């Protein structure tokens, strides 16, 4: 059995009430804590795409995919390899910045990380940064000293590089479809 | 033609050819019952004493006929009373469509009288569930629900309808079942890449690989699981087993997949498996599992299970592969089709030496027997001897269940109705009712224990009212026998809360329900009562007094190695 690592699952589902709770319940039922979850509609408004990250070994992750494929509202599931996919997260950080020195330093840090300042008040600066967790963690560590007042993350979304797509056929999926064919 | 939601529902059940519904009415489902009343009895409705009994009856109907069972319940407690029944059907892959109603749309979310989130509660124990708030979607959804319940790996599906939907009107047009896949939601579902209605072709290279593995094997061993029973693949399985010429063990759910007295049959495998089965699993060099998911009661210790063997897993559900036990090869498909293909490619093998070796170990437990008292084996062999060969047996859960599978020897799929996966005490009487309603010409025997029987004996009222002459045989040891057995073997005889020296008097109870009751203490008495009961005029409750300390043997404790017998 291979070791645990962060696995990224992309799931296409029916855009219907209750589907998200069914999906997330599957993870808790099988004993997995969801590290990150992001949901939104796709170019087809009847279909939502869910990106889920969990800690699991490769075999268990494949089992989770098969459990997900079994659910009727699920269109397709793919385990995204971190080498072949782009993962991004949007993080908003509100920092205490009461004097000019701090304010300048925060603006500099934001510049280095290509983060944008999206709100300014007398006492605070709010920064938006997009990236993978390494980048987010790095800017977080640097801003921490000035006092982070609030932080909010969207959860990771991911897409494969090049022409690969989530709806691609695989042997696992073919086998799966057979088990599920209706009537 | 415009019809109300309730009428559309009944029409959709007619489309499916539903002949029997088990259920219990209530406030929110009134319109549906009204439509059923106006349907002039084209569909028989069986009113049980409790919704759980209705759920088990619909499940028993499905298991014994192979068709989809149907169960009705009202909102709130009606729906929650179904839960054990739905979970039982889910764990054993039994196709049942549960239909419940919920409060009207204007009352939803207000903690109204008898309101509960039925679809939320049942989501982890159904293959799929639907909340219908638009009457225009009703017919499509019912068609989809039946298709999903019976397709692939079967399972329960629940439809929850808001009360206003049952009264609102929509256009309804009759559509024969064959055309369901081309219309509405089902067509959309099938259009999706993930749900194509593909020709159910099994990968031929997978079949060839299995055939080669069988040819190379010197000590093959086969497990017959519930998949063989669900796909009614008993004929194909028998041919397969004979061609492989290796010992065959059954799981609880696989009972009936191969004739119980077949010369290759080694009996049950697992926690209460026979010595022959468990030792064969340990010593074989090729283990072929057909429709079995290697549950903890079968594989016991997944790491050491069949460690000398290559494991081949044949299953219809891709998500079962490598779930519990790591396998070397797998074939995804319906047991019947896979076995047909394997049989085509496989020549008859011969493994006389290996069989001789396995069959030196017992395939049935031996008990000390004398005429003064009843042993479990005596009770079962007496029933097997006197009752017709095609008798349907339902069981509850506990010692009597294991004894029934060890000693009754089931011959065909659907002959045994038992809660294997979920282990639901109180399943048996409901299931027996479902079986007797659908098989009025067959003898139905309900084997139970005094603990299990007490749980849902209220269904004796249903048995009496519908004149269903079911024979209930109670293994009355005045204790929760299986739990007591664990307490004896593992808890140093500290019998915490397992003593059942208490009422009721089951004979008087049967009489109170208008049935016949008799207590027996030896084989002679049992034979005499059974002969009366088998005439089938009236339901019987036969209270068989057996020893409190009688145990199910052999036994391997959970999680240990499969040949590590705690008792033999």
Structure summary, number of beta strands of chain B = 22
Mean pLDDT of chain B: 95
* Name of the CATH first level of the largest domain in chain B: Alpha Beta
Q: Helicity range of the residues of chain A? A: 25-40%
Shape of chain B: globular
Would you give the CATH topology of the largest domain in chain B? Rossmann fold
How would you describe this structure to a colleague?
The complex is a heterodimer of chains A (183) and B (568). Chain A is an alpha+beta fold. Chain A folds into two domains: 5-84 and 161-180, ACT domain (Alpha-Beta Plaits, 2-Layer Sandwich), CATH 3.30.70.260; 87-157, ACT-like. Chain A, domain 2 (Alpha-Beta Plaits, 2-Layer Sandwich). Chain A has five helices and nine strands, in the order βαββαββαββαββα. Chain A has helices at residues 19-29, 58-69, 100-112, 133-144, 171-180, and strands at residues 5-14, 34-41, 47-56, 74-80, 85-96, 116-120, 124-131, 148-153, 157-160. Helices cover 37% and strands 17% of the residues of chain B. The interface between A and B is medium-sized, with 31 and 39 residues.
């Amino acid at each position: 059995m291979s070791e645990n690592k962060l696995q990224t699952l992309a799931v296409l589902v029916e855009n219907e009430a209750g589907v998200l709770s069914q999906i997330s319940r599957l993870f808790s039922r099988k004993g997995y804590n969801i590290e990150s979850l992001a949901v939104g509609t796709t170019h087809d408004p009847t279909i939502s795409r869910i990106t889920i990250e969990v800690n699991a070994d490769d075999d268990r992750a494949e089992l989770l995919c098969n459990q997900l494929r079994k659910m009727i509202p699920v269109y397709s599931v793919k385990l995204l390899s971190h080498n072949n996919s782009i993962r991004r997260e949007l993080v908003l950080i509100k920092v205490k910045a009461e004097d000019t020195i701090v304010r300048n330093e925060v603006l500099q840090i934001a510049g280095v990380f290509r983060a944008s300042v999206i709100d300014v008040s007398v006492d605070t600066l709010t920064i938006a940064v997009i990236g993978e967790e390494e980048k987010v963690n790095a800017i977080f560590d640097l801003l921490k000293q000035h006092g982070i007042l609030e932080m909010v993350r969207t959860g990771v979304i991911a897409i494969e590089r090049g022409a690969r797509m989530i709806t691609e056929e695989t042997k696992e999926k073919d086998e799966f479809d057979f088990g599920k064919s209706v009537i | 033609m415009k019809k109300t939601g309730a009428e559309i529902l009944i029409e959709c059940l007619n489309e499916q050819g539903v002949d029997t519904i088990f259920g219990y009415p209530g406030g929110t489902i009134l319109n549906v019952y009204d439509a059923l009343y106006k349907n002039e009895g084209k569909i028989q409705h069986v009113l049980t004493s409790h919704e759980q009994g209705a759920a088990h009856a619909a499940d028993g109907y499905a298991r014994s006929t192979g068709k989809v069972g149907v169960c009705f319940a009202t909102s709130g407690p009606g729906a929650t009373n179904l839960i054990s029944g739905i979970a039982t059907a889910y764990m054993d892959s039994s196709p049942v469509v549960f239909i419940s109603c919920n409060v009207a749309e204007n009352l939803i979310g207000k903690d109204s009288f008898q309101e509960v989130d039925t679809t939320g509660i049942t989501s982890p124990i159904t293959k799929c569930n639907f909340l219908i708030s638009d009457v225009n979607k009703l017919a499509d959804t019912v068609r989809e629900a039946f298709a999903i319940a019976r397709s692939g790996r079967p399972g329960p599906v629940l439809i929850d309808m808001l009360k206003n939907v049952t009264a609102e009107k929509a256009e309804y047009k009759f559509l024969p079942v064959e055309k369901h896949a081309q219309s509405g939601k089902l067509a959309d579902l099938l259009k999706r890449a993930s749900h194509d209605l593909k020709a159910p072709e099994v990968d031929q290279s997978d079949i060839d690989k299995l055939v080669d593995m069988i040819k190379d094997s010197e000590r093959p061993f086969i497990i017959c699981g519930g998949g063989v029973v669900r796909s009614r693949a008993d004929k194909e399985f028998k041919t397969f087993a004979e061609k492989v010429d290796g010992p065959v063990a059954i799981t609880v759910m696989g009972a009936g997949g191969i004739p119980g007295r077949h010369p290759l049959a080694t009996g049950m495998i697992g926690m209460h498996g026979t010595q022959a089965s468990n030792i064969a699993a340990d010593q074989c060099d090729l283990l072929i599992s057909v429709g079995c998911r290697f549950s903890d009661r079968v594989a016991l210790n997944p790491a050491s299970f069949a460690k000398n063997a290559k494991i081949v897993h044949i299953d219809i559900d891709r998500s079962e592969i490598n779930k519990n036990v790591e396998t070397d090869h797998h074939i995804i498909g319906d047991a019947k089709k896979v076995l047909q293909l394997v049989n085509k490619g496989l020549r008859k093998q011969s493994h006389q030496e290996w069989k001789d070796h396995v069959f030196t170990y017992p395939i049935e437990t031996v008990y000390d027997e004398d005429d003064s008292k009843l042993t479990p084996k005596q009770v079962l062999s007496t029933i097997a001897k006197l009752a017709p060969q095609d008798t349907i047996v339902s069981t509850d859960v506990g010692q009597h269940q294991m004894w029934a599978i060890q000693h009754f020897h089931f011959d065909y799929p659907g002959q045994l109705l038992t809660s294997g996966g979920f282990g639901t005490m109180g399943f048996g009487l409901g299931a027996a009712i479902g079986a007797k309603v659908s098989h009025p010409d067959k003898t139905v025997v309900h084997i139970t224990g005094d603990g299990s029987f007490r749980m849902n004996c209220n269904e004796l009222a249903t048995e009496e009212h519908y004149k269903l002459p079911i024979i209930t045989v109670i293994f009355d040891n005045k204790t929760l026998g299986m739990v007591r057995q664990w307490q004896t073997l593992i808890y140093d005889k500290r019998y915490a809360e397992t003593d059942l020296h208490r009422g009721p008097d089951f004979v008087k109870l049967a009489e109170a329900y208008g049935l016949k009751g008799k207590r027996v203490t030896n084989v002679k008495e049992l034979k005499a009562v059974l002969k009366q009961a088998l005439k089938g005029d009236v339901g019987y409750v036969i209270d068989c007094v057996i020893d409190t300390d009688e145990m199910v043997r052999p036994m391997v404790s959970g999680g240990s190695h499969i040949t590590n017998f705690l008792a033999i």
